[in-house]
Every structure is written in C-alpha cells, then in structure tokens.
Amino acid sequence: MGLAGHSQAQEVEKCTAVAAPPAEFAHWSEAAPLTAATTPAAARRLVVPLGTARKLALAFGSTVEYAAPPERPDAGAGKAGMIAFDVARQGRYRVALSAGPWIEVVRDGKTAKSVAHGHGPDCTGIRKIVDFELSPGRYVLQLTASDTPEVTVMVSPAAAAPAAAPHGSGH
Questions:
Q1: pLDDT of residue 13
Q2: 131-147: buried (b, 16+ CB within 10 Å) or exposed (e) per residue?
Q3: Is 151 helix (H, G, I), strand (E, B) or coil?
Q4: What separation, in Å, do the N-terminal and C-terminal C-alpha atoms of the chain show?
Q5: Distance CA 169, CA 152 (A)
Q6: Is the dihedral of CA 25, 28, 31, 37 positive or negative?
Q7: Which of 106, 132, 115 lies closest to 40, judged by CA?
Q8: Hey, which of 30, 44, 71, 156 would disulfide with 24, CB 3.0 to 4.6 Å?
Q9: Dihedral of CA 63/50/132/23: which sign?
Q10: Whole-Å CA distances, 84 to 39, 68, 77, 142
Q11: Helix (H) or strand (E) holding 114
Q12: What is the largest CA-CA distance in the chain?
C-alpha cells in the first residue's frame, strides 16, 4: 500500500488538536495494552469484543504461525500478531489501525476478501480502515509486515455507508 512513509507521529505534528473518531470507533482512545497471539490456537482464545480498542504488542513476523498463509509476500518481515473477534450478525465490519500493517481476516483457514479500504479521518490516530462483509462466527485478525512494534486496533460493525473506497483483496 502506498502508506509506508506516513507515520502516526507525522499525523500528530500537523494536527493542532485531536479530532473525535467516527461513531463506530468512539472508544478508540481507550485502547488497553495487549500482547498479540503468535499461534492460531492462542489467537482464537484472545477474543477482543467488537468496539473495543487494543494497543497490540507485536512479535517478529518470522516467529508467527499464521491462521492462514499470508497473502503479502513479505509477511515475515517486520512485526506481526493476531487476535480474535466474534461476529453475531451478518454485515459489514470495519477494522481500524493506527499504523499500516497488512490486514487479513481469517475464518476456518480461509481469508475473507476486503470490500473497501481507506484512510482514517485526520487527527484521530486512525491511519487506515478496511471493511469486510462477514457472516456470524469467530474470526482471527492477523496483522503482518508492520514497521512498528505496537499497533492500536479496533473492529466494529459499520455504522453507516462506508467512507472507504471499494477494493479487492489485500490491504
């Protein structure tokens, strides 16, 4: 993705005040620290409730056993990790990140295709948002190729029409 040179520090420098995030990410600033899982079994037990932000401490990508083979060729480079989340209703769900790792949403060893992606609103600390159409069940969110050792993440049901642009697979 063409966002590799952008950092959260650069965003904060240009902001004179922190802006409120979109409604579905209202609790973004309340991110509690959490160490990301490095195996699929551990990830399935590390369930983060929808609408809850976590500041994930990531591991070296080369040490992570992924829930599905990463689509990104350099997934082992940089930092990586996984968490799980549960979906109760069919619909669109949005994954927000404070940095630019590759996002994959995995269920039963299969990677869901994203339906939209975009930048987070300026001055919120949200760098990117990727949307997925999901059916009920438990999913593993795997992050790969992060250039930062820590990433704030939040998964929420989409509140309204997505602000993100249509997109195929990958993110």
A1: 58
A2: bbebeeeebbbbbbbbe
A3: strand
A4: 7
A5: 22
A6: positive
A7: 106
A8: 156
A9: negative
A10: 11, 13, 22, 9
A11: strand 114-119
A12: 44
Integer CA distances (angstroms), 87 to 31, 70, 84, 90, 134, in order:
20, 22, 10, 7, 7
Task: Going residue by residue through the chain, which has 171 residues, state the pLDDT in tens, using 9 for 90 and above.
Answer: 333 344 444 444 578 888 888 888 989 999 999 999 999 999 999 999 999 999 999 999 999 999 999 988 777 789 999 999 999 999 999 999 999 999 999 999 999 999 999 998 899 999 999 999 999 999 999 999 999 999 999 999 998 554 444 444 446
CB 115 within 8 A of CB 133: yes
What pTM does this model have? 0.84
In angstroms, rounded to a whole number, what is the distance separating the alpha carbons of residues 60 and 118? 26
